[in-house]
């Protein structure tokens, strides 16, 4: 590391991608329009007490009807890459079974509008909006979902091979498995045993493999595919060899179930020892699919855990954040910008990836200051700047970090936090659907234009 003399004022590499991200269920709205099937989030939001004030994704940012306006705004800010997701229940309202041509039409119109505005799509096949009909047949606990996903992936990749060159198979496996079936804080809100939860992870890994297979089979020339993971991120308390080794050991343990298994082409011995009798059932051929080579790895990085060398012989010691440690309004979102540096560096070192992308990074707040009609989100400007500096530092140290997608383009449906928590660089007035760029949008636009940290 440390061979390139990049400084904070040097530009990002010429091919570094700057973009923004969002997801179908969080911005589209039109939850029951044009034949769309019910998703697990449409159902979950209606269970009393599950989502902040019972907010539903029914309307969200009404992006379904306003995408052209949204892409015009994006283009006016100089944003040329947009990570979006396709709503599975729009394409197959029942998960499998009959195809809904109006669902494909919608995305066809959407990609045409993006093209018109000079914006390149990065498309996630699954960002949590599982068709409820599949949940009724077991959801992620069942291999029925794996077969249905394989078919859905084939359909979508075939339909949009000419429009899409970058595919992401799944978004954040941990969130829709552990949080959906273990803790129950996310849809479908189930509380299953560790054994069952481990099986949901395994089925998700199989779907990742099917996504890769589909892109190789039908994506056409130059199509690229990868997973987006919210890996556990450790930051060494001191940047000394002992704490760095400890942070790396924690990182390997913590990420064994997803990144470690994909990389090894099997569940590692350490992981199997840790889970014991709760290990998932694996069928012959599963890992041939799961470990198919990918073109890049996407990382959603928001925060990190501090780790230091363990006392009395332990490999590491992970530290709880003190209550006064600065955070955004989501309690899990402690402000640790070095997360970008260490996550990308450890991923490159442990799994040998040739290309890494930050596919999400951002911060959410419940109230933001409005002065003379402008949201003065200096806190978000700081967050962005501090995190981009760490991206820059990673590149300077030889980490193959190739791009950064900010979460999120516009305030949107923040899952169980409803519309209360705002992550956008563009403000959304949910009464009028008026969009207003915040200070941070202007800041990001200037950074993209200058291609360096400002
Ligand atoms: C990500 N955590 O979710 C998702 O990909 C987005 O859809 C979401 O809006 C965004 O981050 C902001 O929350 C996460 O508990 C949810 O550590 C929870 C966690 C991390 C990411």
Automatic annotation (TrEMBL):
Official protein name in the record: Beta-glucosidase
Coiled coil: none
Top-level EC class as recorded in UniProt: hydrolase
Keyword list, A-Z: Carbohydrate metabolism, Cellulose degradation, Glycosidase, Hydrolase, Polysaccharide degradation, Signal
Protein family according to the UniProt entry: Belongs to the glycosyl hydrolase 1 family.
Catalytic activities: Hydrolysis of terminal, non-reducing beta-D-glucosyl residues with release of beta-D-glucose
EC number(s) on file: 3.2.1.21
PANTHER family (UniProt xref): GLYCOSYL HYDROLASE, LP05116P
A Pfam family: Glyco_hydro_1
Naturally occurring in which organism (per UniProt): Roseateles saccharophilus (Pseudomonas saccharophila)
SUPFAM superfamilies xref list: (Trans)glycosidases
Molecular functions per Gene Ontology: beta-glucosidase activity
The keyword Signal is annotated on this UniProt entry: yes
